[in-house]
Specification:
The structure holds 3 protein chains of 3 kinds. By secondary structure, chain A is mainly α. Helices cover 77% and strands 2% of the residues of chain A. In chain C, helix 4 crosses helix 5 and helix 5 crosses helix 7. Classes of the chains: A mainly alpha, B mainly alpha, C alpha/beta. Chains in contact: A-B, A-C, B-C.
Chain lengths: 324, 308, 326
């Protein structure tokens, strides 16, 4: 297990390195680095001085090393707009995005798993066909438009739920959270449902396909030949097998959900990382964009790592390969 | 065996007709009414988009035709000059929503189809190169594909547009960048399987030029999965374009696509003027659903693994 | 006299596919007494496996048992509810599958898969169940069973996995075991060991055994009786020695002829021409007639299942009554 972990960590570090190079090239080489790093208001002399100070007269590979060194110390530059470290800006808004993404993942699993299981066990029943049709719709519906419709129905017409913002928050562990207050929860409902739409459809499809495939396996028939109850077969023999692909995909999708919260946060004016990056793009606050990208990359790597480890815990075959 | 089948009274008459792959494909596709419905719907939408200049009540891009006094009128209102009815209402600039939607469809569809075709060309070429060259070339291309696929499309597209700026062409470029990998992976996978088949080996033994092997032998076999992926990607591209435009990073405000029309209605939603966002959204939804219905059935028909 | 362990009468199992009705099992009858072994022999697609699944009530849609009766110790299984049937499965009637690589759930440990079988039918503590699982593993010749209980299936070889599957089948000392080609996927040496164990088991515990196989040489040393299946029907039946020495049906003759060891060196291997017919829309009459060297016009009529000698049945109008030089 230790060897397995070490190998994965090394791989992860390598990917971070490659991604940092890509981000560096994307932002510092393609864009005009002066424009990115120095406030447009600066005059010529200030610019010259800054260029020297920042080492922009150095060859590209040296610049990259400097960028890397600063990044390692957590310095990803100052935001043009807020004049604060870009990294801190993003980390401040991370809890809002995280609670949304975690909420959406939970909703997707809680709704998607049972529905997918049912549709997989009874593929020909009308209810299953309805579930499947619903999941196709879930894939097709443009998320932002559904968000607008949710606001129209539940906030404007019915007045049941607040339309925008985070509502009341509580500070725990130095971070502000909405899900711990009643008002905050009410604010969370629509964005969470909206963000989970795609994921729920995905979980339904994966579970359904997995159940249908697993039910045809010899070991399921053997389990029936052993006289096990249908509940035991479904929840132990079938479920444990389909959990592996579902956990993998849902886990890997978590990064996608955080990325996609860009859209949901814009619709519901939810003050998370996604809203920040859209605002930053609109005003070309490039240090924030760089910081966001690096954080997202790190997050993806971490998620991949966690999924790999969970996967190995669930599937004995993988676990033992790592051991030997 | 054959003699018994011929003598059987149960031998079905249509079996007598010559079964070409195309005919078989059409009849299998038509087995799903839902898919036929989707196809019909899609053709209708394409026709409406193509005919927009002739069937739309006004040209929504011609500012001279817009009357700001007609802004935010409810569906069914008559226009100021009393010459036609705003069946779906107007937006804040007095643009007829029906006309806006018809013209918006043109942009959404052409961006979707254009990016899909370009991405297919780029992706299929690289996928074929990877499969045929193998070794390091293959490794490099597939690492790129993995990297691209593991990164969320919406983010990649956002970043590209942030650096390139708005504009239809830039949107297409962004979509091609985020989508080529799907085609590359598909083509490489199929081509690798096909390459090991005897007929390719036979062709190689005959010393046929590589180009001929690729275009006459390998590529046609990659077409079915490519068509399936392509269909799905057109729907995805349309949705992504709409999302980008909604976020204000897609098409320019002067030629709104469906996504931008929806975005325009966002601020009026809270005051109950639902139609500005609602109808373009319905048009978008119907377009995507119809393509996905066709794509789903195509996948079932063209996927050999599902055949028994 | 107590009823035989299993009596199958005119069993019909049909599959209702879109292309038509597949008569996978069509009017099959046989009897297995306690402590006896019945060899159910046939090519793939002859319906022998479906017969086995029919006995356990494990035929999946679009298949369905459409006629006949399956009497287990005198009780018609068709009249049982699914719950009652479940109490029999794995308990009084057990099954062993063909491919040991596929029958054990890859993500569950061996002990989980064994203990759950014990607990499904016996009200015992987990510890007791574990003890029984350990004993069963020992019984089938798995060394250090206690350790092996903690293992996952992929840590076992094919032969070992099949032993585990057999151990699971033996857990409740069933009255009947249906073994569906359990040695086909294994090495010849392992096959021999498993056959010997199966034989010992039946003799000792009085378990009735149905051994499904396509390999006549396997049943030759194992079975008491043989039923040969072809295209969903039993074409020949009788005591094993008798069937092998004096086969009646041309198909059985062909099968015996194509066992390599029975041929002399240098002679070409005999084989049955043609291939198994599609069970879809099977024409009336003898299904074997297209491949039969003795076929004649009358074979287009359905042949009766007749007793040609005492205890020797065949579905053929012109059986080999004389001894066939094999």
């Amino acid at each position: 297990m230790t060897v397995f972990l070490l190998r994965r960590l090394l791989q992860a570090a390598a990917v971070v390195l490659v991604m940092s190079l890509l981000v560096f090239l994307g932002v510092y080489a393609i864009g005009d680095p002066v424009e990115i790093l120095i406030s447009p208001e600066a005059d010529q002399i200030e610019r010259e001085r800054a260029i020297q100070a920042l080492g922009l007269d150095l060859p590209l590979w040296q610049q990259y090393l400097v960028f890397l060194g600063r990044a390692l110390q957590g310095d990803l530059g100052l935001s043009f707009v807020f004049n604060e470290p870009a990294l801190r800006l993003i980390l401040d808004r991370m809890p809002a995005t995280l609670e949304l993404a975690v909420g959406a993942t939970l909703v997707a699993l809680v709704i998607g798993l049972p529905l997918g299981l049912y549709a997989g066990l009874r593929p020909h029943s009308p209810v299953s066909k309805g579930i499947l049709a619903g999941s196709i719709l879930g894939f097709s519906l443009p998320t932002f438009w559904v968000g607008l419709m949710l606001i129209m129905v539940f906030a404007v017409q019915l007045g049941w739920l607040p339309s925008t913002g985070r509502g009341e928050t509580v500070t725990v562990l130095g971070m502000r959270w909405s899900f711990l207050t009643r008002d905050g929860l009410a604010h969370m409902v629509m964005p969470t449902v909206n963000l989970s739409l795609f994921k729920t459809s995905l979980v339904i499809r994966l579970t359904r396909a997995g159940v249908r495939e697993t039910m045809l396996m010899d070991y399921v028939k053997f389990a029936r030949a052993k006289g096990l109850s249908p509940a035991r077969i479904t929840f132990v023999h079938v479920f444990k097998n389909i959990l592996i692909p579902v956990v993998t995909v849902v886990g890997l999708e978590f990064g996608g959900t955080i990325a996609f919260s860009v859209v949901t946060e814009s619709v519901f004016a939810w003050p998370g990382m996604g809203k920040l990056i859209i605002d930053s793009i609109n005003v070309l606050d490039r240090p924030v964009m760089v910081a966001y990208l690096m954080i997202i990359v790190l997050m993806f790597i971490t998620i991949n790592l966690v999924v790999d480890i969970t996967y190995s815990l669930l599937d004995p075959r993988v676990r033992l390969e790592g051991k030997s | 065996m054959s003699s018994t089948a011929a003598g059987s009274p149960l031998a079905r008459p249509q079996a007598a007709a010559v079964e070409t792959p195309l005919r078989r494909f059409i009849s299998e596709f038509a087995e799903s009414r839902l898919a036929l419905f989707g196809l019909g719907l899609f053709l209708l939408i394409v026709a409406a988009a193509l005919l927009a200049p002739w069937i739309a009540p006004q040209n929504p891009y011609d500012l001279a035709q817009l009357d700001i006094m007609d802004g935010r009128l409810e569906p069914g209102s008559r226009n100021g000059a009393d010459t036609f009815i705003y069946w779906l209402g107007t937006d804040d600039q007095g643009r007829d929503m029906l006309s806006g939607i018809l013209y918006g469809l043109r942009i959404s569809l052409s961006v979707g189809a254009g990016s899909a075709i370009l991405a297919c060309l780029v992706g299929a070429s690289l996928g074929m190169l990877a499969a045929y060259a193998g070794g390091r070339t293959d490794g490099l291309i597939m690492r790129l594909v993995d990297l691209q696929l593991s990164f969320p499309a919406i983010l990649a597209a956002l970043m590209i547009l942030a650096f390139l700026g708005k504009g239809i062409l830039n949107v297409v470029i962004a979509l091609v960048v985020v989508e080529w990998a799907y085609y590359a992976r598909t083509v490489r996978g199929t081509a690798l399987v096909e390459r090991r088949r005897e007929y390719i080996e036979a062709a190689q033994c005959l010393a046929l030029p590589t180009r001929r092997i690729i275009f006459r032998h390998l590529l046609p076999n990659c077409l079915p999965p490519l068509i399936v992926v392509g269909t799905m990607q057109v729907a995805r591209a349309i949705a992504l374009e709409a999302t980008l435009s909604f976020l204000g990073l897609g098409v320019p405000i002067t030629e709104p696509s469906l996504g931008l029309l929806i975005a325009n209605g966002y601020e009026y939603m809270l005051s109950g003027k639902y139609w500005i966002s609602f109808y373009p959204g319905i048009a978008l939804l119907v377009t995507i659903v119809s393509i996905n219905l066709v794509g789903d059935q195509l996948r079932d028909v063209l996927n050999p693994r599902l055949k028994k | 006299m107590s009823p035989p362990t299993l009596q199958v009468r005119n069993l019909k199992t049909h599959f209702f596919t879109r292309a038509g009705v597949v008569r996978a099992v069509d009017d099959v009858s046989f009897t297995v007494e306690s402590g006896k072994v019945l060899g159910l022999v046939g090519e793939s697609g002859s319906g022998k496996s479906v017969t086995g699944f029919s006995i356990l009530g494990l035929v999946d849609p679009p298949g369905r048992v459409t006629g006949g009766s399956i009497l287990f110790k005198g009780q018609d299984l068709a009249t049982l509810s699914e719950a009652a049937m479940r109490r029999l499965r794995g308990n009084r009637i057990a099954m062993i599958f063909q491919d040991p690589m596929m029958t054990l759930n890859p993500v569950l440990r061996i002990d989980t898969q064994m203990i759950e079988t014990v607990l499904a039918h016996a009200k015992v503590s987990r510890e007791e169940a574990r003890q029984r699982a350990r004993d069963a593993l020992g019984q089938v010749g798995i060394p250090s069973p206690e350790e092996r209980l903690h293992a996952y299936p992929h840590q076992f070889s094919g032969g070992m996995r099949q032993r585990v599957a057999i151990a699971i089948a033996l857990l409740h000392k069933p009255d009947l075991i249906v073994a569906d080609e359990p040695t086909t996927a294994l090495d010849v040496t392992i096959q021999g060991q498993i056959l010997a164990e199966a034989q010992k088991l039946c003799a000792e515990s009085g378990t009735a055994l149905i051994w499904i196989t396509h390999d006549l040489s396997v049943v030759a040393g194992l079975a008491d009786d043989i039923a040969v299946m072809y295209a969903g029907k039993v074409v020949e039946q009788g005591p094993v020695v008798d069937v092998l020495d004096a086969p009646l049906h041309p198909y059985t003759v062909g099968l015996i002829g194509s066992v390599p060891s029975r041929n002399h060196r240098g002679e070409p291997l005999r084989q049955i021409p043609g291939m198994t017919p599609s069970l879809l829309n099977l024409p009336a009459g003898c299904a074997f007639r297209a491949r039969c060297p003795r076929a004649e016009a009358r074979c287009a009529e359905p042949p009766p299942f007749a007793e040609y000698r005492p205890g020797r049945f065949a579905r053929c109008i012109h059986p080999y009554q004389e001894a066939v030089a094999a």
